[in-house]
Design brief:
233 residues; 8 strands; alpha/beta; five-stranded mixed sheet
């Protein structure tokens, strides 16, 4: 049973987190939350945020990974089942930290919070709208090299999205066009081959398409819920 004190502390934490969400480009609310954690026996959480923003004393990332996996409302506690597995690898690039799981999910923290996700296609199709509601993601991507999705009419399309790789002097497929159109709702895409000048351009476009899909799914679910409520379905 949650005590009144615990309930009060959670409400304050929720308010501080909401301030972070409402000011995504401002580090001040993040540092305020960091100080609050430090003052309430959550030094690991507080020091991680401050380290990522200001480069202060380094943090034990193994311990932090264990801590955020099991609890902490702005990280991964609700995703354990979807992500199917514990952390298997931690990689860093500067102060950017990526936690990888057995379920082929890669979670990147920047400025103290989840900033980027790479997940299997099935995970995004099932949880994408929830993920963009829960985390302030700036980028998303697919962790599979050859993602698959079932279509009502069956068959796997031949057309692909390409990027130009000057090092190898040719085009290299990264994703079937049909999957891309499925994720983006076909917005701005024709049946012609889509080509990009760089891998980064292609991945940026894929990230945009995944966001479009998730937002559309969220809108559909909201509309369905409104119908159920209005008509008492």
């Amino acid at each position: 049973m949650i005590s009144l004190e615990e309930d009060y502390m959670r409400s304050i934490e929720s308010e501080l987190l909401e301030d972070v969400r409402n000011n995504p480009e401002d580090d001040t609310p993040r540092l305020v939350l960091s100080d609050w954690y430090m003052d309430h026996d959550e030094e690991l959480l507080g020091s991680f945020i401050r380290w990522q923003i200001q480069g202060t004393d380094s943090v034990d990332l193994e311990e932090y990974g264990k801590r955020i996996y099991w609890s902490n409302p702005h990280s991964l506690w609700a995703l354990k089942d979807s992500f199917s597995g514990r952390f298997t690898k931690i990689t860093t690039e500067g102060r950017s930290v990526t936690f990888s799981t057995e379920g082929n999910v890669h979670i990147t923290y920047r400025r103290g919070f989840v900033d980027e996700l790479k997940v299997p296609l099935s995970t995004w199709l099932e949880n994408g709208s929830w993920l963009i509601d829960t985390y302030q993601l700036s980028r998303v991507g697919l962790s599979e090299r050859r993602p698959e999705v079932k279509f009502a009419r069956g068959g796997f399309p031949f057309k692909k999205i390409y990027y130009w790789n000057s090092e190898f002097g040719g085009l290299h497929s990264i994703l079937t066009l049909e999957i891309f159109k499925y994720l983006s709702g076909g917005i701005g895409r024709s049946d012609a081959e889509v080509r990009y000048d760089s891998v980064q351009d292609a991945l940026d476009s894929l990230s945009d398409a995944m966001f479009v899909y998730a937002r559309n799914e969220r809108a559909k679910k909201s509309a369905q819920e409104n119908l159920r409520t209005h008509y008492r379905l």
